[in-house]
């Protein structure tokens, strides 16, 4: 029995370990296009590996999985974030949960995750082949023939596709012989380039909690925002880019971004706050009293943008001035002129359509013994460890499905 896994990312390597444990008599091979396995895991979380999330602050699966929420809610009943944390700690990787609910290795080293998976693959006899670009997967009767760019074809009884996301549709051409329906992939999780960047002088500033939305749409997000030399980034922007990934792609990454600098505070409540400041600090210059938590530099910039300036006295501000300031604080419109993708951590929406797989097993509806997991499917998440959680979960579910197909005990019975 030969089980071939195409792609040595998180989902593929996690699946390989569990399949080899459940089916020790099978030959398990992993074929990776790149020269090193788990390359994306090694750089995620800035090289610290944000491997999951505590989900303590997650209101709904849809809020963190713009695509694939329904599928993952089902799969999390089999293997969720608690199982992931328990599994890695049992394998000798102590974890820590941050205040923002992101989970990292206590060492803050992504390599601990990478080396743990590679060690377990070696221990259980998984054959890892790097630099193997798959050009086609041909269905046989039974089994599959896998064609490579610079390698002789290989036949396998079961194939698991875990090649990750792809920014270009032609990266899915190797699936063409299988006639699987796909959703054209487009980038997700990127920061915004601003036209004539009006906040460039504030590069490096972090606002702890803002609201963001795209004008004329229902897309909105909240959280910290980072002002950069090219535009804006941070969780509030990355989440918005994920929710609106296809809309932004279809509009050539041009849109009006509306920022609420004081979070969800209403225009009326902010106007009232400004009236109180005028009363309490009537003799002071407007620029000397900064509403929390803006920061003086941003406050001065906003005052200039509204034409009020920093040197006027609070007592001189009219009701109209209060309304203008309140409107700017709750709905500052900035023009997005492009995207600035992460150089190393790249997420896409799109891939193989979810109606092509059995949701309980991730096996192809069209081809018996063909499984798909991870971002090769039309599943993706916002930042915070949710993409890797999806990969661990789907990799585990595939291994359990294959084990059941071969009449083996589940991974849970093997004392995960």
Describe this structure in words.
It is a single chain. This protein is an alpha+beta fold. The protein has 3 domains: 2-186 and 345-414, FAD/NAD(P)-binding domain; 189-255 and 333-341, Elongation Factor Tu (Ef-tu), domain 3, CATH 2.40.30; 267-330, Helicase, Ruva Protein, domain 3, CATH 1.10.8. The protein is built from 12 helices and 19 strands. The protein has a 6-stranded antiparallel barrel with strand order 12-15-14-13-16-17. The protein has a 5-stranded parallel beta sheet with strand order 6-2-1-10-19, covered by helices on one side. It has a 3-stranded antiparallel beta sheet with strand order 3-5-4. A hairpin with a 3-residue loop joins strand 14 (220-227) and strand 15. Helix 1 runs parallel beside helix 6 (110-123) and helix 9 (267-280) packs across helix 11. The longest helix has 20 residues, at 386-405. It is elongated, with a radius of gyration of 25 Å.
Summarize this structure briefly.
This protein is of the alpha+beta class. 30% of the residues lie in helices and 23% in strands.
Number of helical stretches of at least 4 residues: 12
What is the gyration radius calculated from CA atoms?
A: 25 Å
Order of strands across the widest beta sheet?
A: 12-15-14-13-16-17
CATH architecture of the largest domain, please?
A: 3-Layer(bba) Sandwich
CATH fold name of the largest domain = FAD/NAD(P)-binding domain
CATH homologous superfamily (4th level) name of the largest domain? FAD/NAD(P)-binding domain
